[in-house]
Specification:
Blueprint: H1 15-23, H2 31-41, E1 46-49, H3 56-68, E2 74-78, H4 82-95, E3 103-106, H5 112-120, E4 125-128, H6 130-138, E5 147-152, H7 155-160, H8 164-173, E6 179-184, H9 189-198, E7 203-206, E8 217-223, H10 229-239, E9 243-247, H11 251-263, E10 268-271, H12 277-289, E11 294-297, E12 310-315, H13 324-329, E13 339-345, H14 350-360
Parallel strand pairs: 1-6, 1-7, 2-4, 2-5, 3-4, 5-6, 8-13, 9-11, 9-12, 10-11, 12-13
Helix pairs in contact: 2-3, 3-4
Amino acid sequence: MINENEGFSGLGIAPGILDILAKLKFTVPTPIQKKGIPIGVEGKDIIGIAQTGTGKTLAFGIPMVQRLAQAEGRGLIVVPTRELALQVSETIVKLTPAFKMKSVVLIGGQSMHTQIVGLKSSPRIIIATPGRLLDHMQQKNIKLNDVRILVLDEADRMLDMGFMPQINRILREVPKERQTMLFSATMPSDIVRIASTNMKLPVRTELAPQGTTAELVSQEIFVVRAELKLTILNEILKQYTGSVLLFTRTKRGAAKVTRSLRNSGVSAAEIHSDRSMGQRKDALNGFKTGRYRVLVATDIAARGIDVTGIELVINYDLPDDPSNYVHRIGRTGRAGRKGHAISLATPDQGSDVKGIEKIIRSTIPLSNHPTVNTEKFNVPLPGSSSNIVFSSSNMKDRGKKRKYR
């Protein structure tokens, strides 16, 4: 039986929405929901700092739907990627039917005409990526003068992707008298600037130190030569049976790995900005349903994939930006489940690993593979246990090795 103190009751949520949550079998709020919802339903501005996969959509979605049900105006949710927009929409539409509240998604890769038709149906909630939203604004398909609640989700990711000019334009167009809810995994200076100039006495809720990796995600690194990456990847996939999310640095790399996996008999799909919206939706839906066991992605999907039950995240390539490591591995170990993350590094990437370890404030264990030769980093890492690496070909050290999972 759920302890009432642990449930959604007592957070200021209206009975009608509590009924919806009960039907959806949402019984225990996550920490960000428990902290954020009471602030949001009061109409206060929020800065929510929380690592990915913590349930932020309900943290802003419940207050938005509840407050719009009580007053006129619209809600605007701005997100960095198409995939995230669609996933936010999936959650929002579960909350709105009882209030006869329509929503529309404005993203690239989909028909402008269809979106214009959706806008003409007077939606109360708009979910959009910055670029497509500005396209509609420039074509005068939409005005933002009636936005009562603004949400900037994954704000740091939007800035990383170069959307600062678009965000500033949006902030100029929405009314000054509004509620603003900003959610971000990190708090860089640009986010501080947005908050200080565009929010009114925001309440800050921070659930974990910036850069904190998910508690239930174990991690390890294999150091191998670049030409052995595909070999060790196939060996790793033999050791696991569940779904795998694999990250590459480039779109070309994603296509190459996907082809290799398919040639090896592994069901795989790729998702990145060169794929059409239809292809990206097919890849994501196929991954969710199990039609594809491995989803190969670039960092565009690092925060846009919300799939429970991912057993393993593989960093086939280390990220260009060390902070993206946190967002990548946050795709596993969600909803209270354990997860595992494996990174493949080449011998010359010791400094890159050191940069990641600095951000996550911990050392990632180095492992040796029983069948594929592993290497040492070319440059030792001062103060890091990563200095101690044993070659898999050195049988004398076999007893000192970390057991392969």
